[in-house]
Amino acid sequence: MAGLWLLSLLLPVFGALLVVPLCRYATLSAGIAAVTTVLAAIPGIYVSFSLLGGHPPVSIAYAWSLPGGALQIDVDAVSAFFLLPVFILSPLCAIYGGAYLHQVKGKLLGFHWAFFLLLVASMILVLSAGQVFLFLVAWELMSLTSFFLVAFDQQEREVRQAAWVYLVASHIGVTLLLGFFLYSSQWSGSLLFSDFQALKSISPSLATGLFLLAVTGFGIKAGLFPLHVWLPEAHPAAPSHVSALMSAVMVNLGIYGILRVVTWLPQAPAWWGLLLAGFGIAGALYGIALAAVQQDIKRCLAYSTVENVGIIFVGLGVGIYAGAAGFPGVALLAFAGALLHLWNHSLFKGMLFLGAGNLVHATATRNMNQLGGLMKRLPATSLLLIGGSVAITALPPFNGFISEWLIYLGLLHGGLEMPRAMGLPLLLLVSLLALVGAAAILVFVRLVGISVLGNPRSAAAASAHEGSILLLAPPAILLAGCVLIGLNPLPVLDLLRAPVVLLIKTELLPVLTLTAFTGLGRGVWLLLALIVGMALLLFVQRYRHPAVVAATWGCGFALPNNRMSYNATAFSELAHNHLLPRTLRPEVVAAPVTTFFPQAAQLSQQSSDPVLNRLLQLFFTRIANLCQRLRWFQQGRLPIYLLYIFLTCIGLMIWSLWVFGGG
Amino acid sequence: MIVGILIHLLLLLLFAPLLAGIIARTKALFAGRRGQPVLQLYFDLLRLARKGSVISKTTTWVFAAGPVIGLVVPLIAALMLPFGTFKAPLSFDGDLILFVYLFALARFFTAAAALDTGSSFEGMGAAREVTFSCLAEPTIMFALLVLAKLSGGLSLDVLLGDHLSASWRGGSGPALGLILVCLFVVLLVENSRIPFDDPNTHLELTMIHEVMVLDHSGPAFGMILYGAALKLMVLGTLVVNLALPWATPWWALNLLLYLAGLVLLAMLIGIVESVMARLRLVRIPQVLIGTTLISVFALVLVLR
Question: How much of chain A is in helix, strand and coil states, percent to nearest 5?
């Protein structure tokens, strides 16, 4: 088992070393990336499944010359749970990326693929590290390689800016994590994660401090509101296969960190859970509200990641809350729902980013207002996008419904069983989740309806056509996974047992084989059967009376053109004027109509992230202004600098006399 | 269970179109007209089923998926509801979530079908439909939560089951009254009735639902009309079960009571449509937020 795991780690590293000297050959390096990730995935998936199936944890220790003991690898069921999406998504993204970047000229693609493979390897290492030093090195490697992947189109100003925002955000995160790990290893007297159990005896206030440090540090990577600011910048800027890998897999690693920390710290008090759930639901509402006003299709998907991460945190938070309050059944449902939603999100968000990538590949624009009519031109991609949208809006019979249903069940059971005041937050969460769900329908009806259905709104969309099979197969495989989990959730829930047991330390397992699933299953199959039956009926009727094909009725207007068709901005106008609070609304620039017969008019709309642009930018600008004052010290004349050196020496001498003089 | 499913479906399929006729008749009475026959929708459905259709050259399979899913969803949703004292044939813990999300599925495909035509009017209708239901969704959830808290169960069959008559008589009457009002408002919104929407005008700019189905014709349009009638009866069942919790020892009498309740509800909708004007579009969100607050208040009353 250890050998297989090592194989899955070393193959991408080997691939990365191989592509660098071959960086001039685009196709060859893409091929190497695809082959090595596929070869790594086979043992990797096997290891993950056997660990999830109850295989004892894999532990490897190598001697190394760095301080802090051995190079310790610990892969348990929780790691395996998070490793599985890495092994499933990385080969698919590599295969897709080869075809996606096929047209790119004038870049040394080998370096791109080297960074890609190193990112895969570093994610595997983060999830397997059993020691602080190794963990932090792998974490940093992951941030740096993904920075270079985001900066692929670095000739564009906004891509450079997005990459910088991402780099700064991840380093603020790593600084906080450094603080957390330094303190924890100081306290437990060891760099090994297995010795962190000593933290169980830490005082409650210190535990809270460590928890908050870890939630902030890992929350940045996870995209937990309000630390999500890098996410809507970096995801649209990166090439689509990189966005898919980052959004569907890398974001999970932040959640992994928080879960690990919770298992090390003493029994979490209830308010930690409420805190996580509170930020989770705030993030879900915020993410989906901003997704509704984006015109950039990938930015819209990035905000939907913020929403889904929020939902996952609602589940985890409620799980912690219920666990602390002594309701293990509720905790089990909430944890199982959150973990399943994490897998589901990996599947459908990966799928949607790859699908959106196909639209970008075919039309060279990410602006939904420039798309449209692609159902006729890219039928397979459009079908995939519709399927993915139904899955991500948690509609039956797809997988998103199963995981959200479990979270709802947890909330409902908790709300009904807990004594009055304790259950109230859970009942409120039920309705807020329903609100998020309804808003998600708005967002994804808009995404599908505007960018895929209707008439083309630009010449590029009108002449678009489907790409190669390599652009279609990876998202199709992911969508197949969504359908499978949706129709047959019980085997998947069985796989969740091992990680859930490790996380909540309860043996209350039979609840997961709920009788409710039988009823749900019957309902879903009946739904499918009736839909198929009714569709056949309609088809037969159409066959007997062939339909007359005519133009869409234009309400009597003789010459409708495509500029009149509804676009993304128009679709969300009602929502952003009547539902959104003022701070979340996009900036609209419109020339006022002054004469009775207006001539040319202009309207443009720009949505920028309020947290980034109103809060953080202000904060960092202020710091930069303060730092400006320090420039006074730089006089640019040699004598002054000599004076500084002299003064420093005097200061050091006085200090050393003062400290060591007495002894 | 199979027998239960068949009884439910037969009742629903046979009775639902009558409600539309009763609403139309009530409105005609108020306007001093004789009005169409009560069975008009049955005739319409038969006629549409035999007709050919005209479809837009812009449209794809999504355009057909809208009517199909719009018709299937109320059928499945109905199986989770008790019809009077007829138990729900498909009942499990947490089916209320499936109930709500099924209608969301129908909404997704109805709106997508509208956008598939590429017409601005239908895009406008789709945008309104999905926007306003964002506000109706929390209200339904709060109302169901009140019932869940009172009954202690998590399936609609229990939520709308035997506990109701005791709950009405006990201290929970005010909370039930509040959510009854809320559910009636949601019923009007979801079934595109005055004062939120006008089912009669097809081209007014204040239109929501009717404008989304402008381009449908023939059997597909029949499916839409039938689906709308079924949805009215399914959501109406929520209200009727809640308002008429009495049960007699005779099943036939119970059934009659339930059906009479539905007829009364249809008449009530007709009266509301006759005496009220359509709200301005910008007022609709305000009314819906109001009902959400009322339902929150009802929940607080129950938790007190």
Answer: 75, 5, 20
